[in-house]
Amino acid sequence: MKIICIGRNYVAHAQELNNEIPEEPVFFMKPDSALLRNNDPFYIPDWTNEVHHEIELVMRVCRLGKNIEKRFAHRYYDEIGLGVDFTARDVQNELKKKGLPWEKAKAFDRAAVISSTFFPVSIFPTPETIRFKLNINGQTVQEGNSGLMIFGFDEIISHISKYITLKIGDLIYTGTPAGVGPVKIGDQLEGYLEDKKLLDFMVK
Ligand code: ZN
Known about the structure:
By secondary structure, the protein is α+β, with helices and mostly antiparallel strands. It has helices at about 10-15, 90-100, 105, 155-165, and strands spanning about 5, 25-30, 35, 50-55, 55-60, 75-85, 85-90, 110-115, 120, 130-135, 140-145, 170-175, 180, 190-195, 195-200.
């Protein structure tokens, strides 16, 4: 399986990092070695001083597909879960300045937190109003709603599949809302999808 992440998919988040609003989805990838499951703790690597949390809705691909038209895209994902796209922001800023790829800052071990539970898309009244949030030590720091995504689930599937074949089990992180910031040792992170707590883990 592979992990594909969308960047700058919420206007307020793009603005908080002084990024342009993209005209088409920006995407990058993480290897499967980046996955952090079962609410295991996240260890801050020793080569960064600034790891940011990015809470995101995650789509699970359920069908093999390439060049998927937007109107058929809904057939290619059937479950939504929650993830954190951990980002070494200091390293990413250096790479961005030099025009280099982001892998060091995004693809490192444990940088892709994923919930054990996914919900069938069908339980949501519409895929356009899915609410989610991240609490740190009991305080809400990020709140999102899929309706605020610049590129919706169908558009993301259609765009990525133009370039990359999607396979069953692939995970697509759909971008983070505003409110990203650093985590520190001892923080407790809790992620909610609607009112269900799907993530609850420590930073060490
Ligand atoms: Zn992200």
